[in-house]
Amino acid sequence: MARKPRTQTKLFVLDTNVFLHDPTCLFRFQEHDLYVPMATLEELDHNKKGVTEVARNGRQASRFLEEIVSTQELDIEQGIPLGPHSHKAATGRLYLQTTSIQNDIAAVLPASKVDNQLLGVVSYLQHKFPSRPVILVSKDINMRIKARALGFLAEDYFNDKVLEDTDLLYSGVRELPENFWDSHGKGMESWQQDGRVRYRLSGPLCASMLVNEFVYQEGAKPFYAMVSEAVGKSSVLTTIKDYSHSKNSVWGVTARNREQNFALNVLMDPDIDFVTLLGQAGTGKTLLTLAAGLAQTLEQKLYSEIIFTRVTVPVGEDIGFLPGTEEEKMTPWMGALEDNLDVLNKSDDAAGEWGRAATQDLIRSRIKVKSLNFMRGRTFLNKFLVIDEAQNLTPKQMKTLITRAGPGTKVVCLGNIAQIDTPYLTEGSSGLTYVVDRFKGWPHSGHVMLARGERSRLADRAAEIL
């Protein structure tokens, strides 16, 4: 470890929770060096048992470490270059603790606790390399507070964040400026195709437009369209279907605002395989999705059935084990589904009580409620798959679910990133934020951020002031 770096690279000391959070963290520090204390390896060993996401990550991290260490023929104290193992993404070195470390931390904190042993390692390295920044990386807030109280540098692990600021998250909707047609109308072409008007435009705004992004202009003559092509500084805008009109109602549901109209356009488009709808409580995400699902399953026969699943993270205390089959166990979590089905069933007044009961039975036979725990290894053919409360999924879990889609399947993810109940996820690292960011601009995906609550004046006021 006496090797002096040519440039002033940092030395990062890794806490166990970083490995348990992201097993690939070894390859995420670019040119900087990493130091793994013995206490971290001990804790990794304690966390390897079980089938949870944490245990899986612990085992994967250990495999990566073993792969790196087993290739080292020279003295480990000199550090192991990470470049060959990371396709040159990380060019620093990995150091493992090879000797017992005596430090002055024991006088302040009891050495029996693993956290304090880690702080002792940071203290030792700081004294050994006084001119080099030694930084503790931990996901544990209290650990970082302790480190700073003792005068050490400490940082959170940010590499898992898709976006630093969720205000920058793609909304799927863009308001056109007042002078848009003046600045983009030169040489404009327009034609009719499939009952829709299309406009081919070129101009400065076109370069930043994404395929399937909605654009609008309010005023005396409102204009609502979707970007159907975007190449360089040229775009094709296609007018959308007006689902706010009762003649275009979907299973008795009409759009109550602009964003709901946009949402129904992507939900009802058979060319769009993947839809994400974000919005606070009461914006109509589940209702619109179920209405579109029922219309396309029972009326248009595009899909064979609707599969509804959601992340089972309780808001309060857990209610323990539940009896019954998979569907029965999921019933307490499916209040949202029941509430929305009640609304959809009431929309058909002409059918009478018997007719409604028959419709209800038909709908029940076509909606399957599944648990996320049994999704691995499945393939869904011609299904309308709805993932509710998707903000509580990690990016890895999201990938597992979306890759279940077989031919003819549409996947719809619903969520509100302001309501994350999973302890280790934030708005920036949620799987929902991840897929919205990665799928934007793909011709077969659509995204709409629903803005206005349509539940009741009480719910809107509560969302605003509480």
TrEMBL record:
Residues 10-145 form the PIN domain. Keywords: ATP-binding, Nucleotide-binding. It holds the Pfam family PhoH. The keyword Hydrolase does not apply. One of its GO terms (molecular function) is ATP binding. The keyword Transcription does not apply. It comes from the Bacteria. InterPro entries: P-loop_NTPase, PhoH, PhoH2-like, PIN-like_dom_sf, PIN_dom. GO terms for cellular component: cytosol. Gene3D superfamilies: 5'-nuclease (3.40.50.1010), P-loop containing nucleotide triphosphate hydrolases (3.40.50.300). In the N-terminal section; belongs to the PINc/VapC protein family. This is PhoH family protein. It comes from Parasulfuritortus cantonensis.
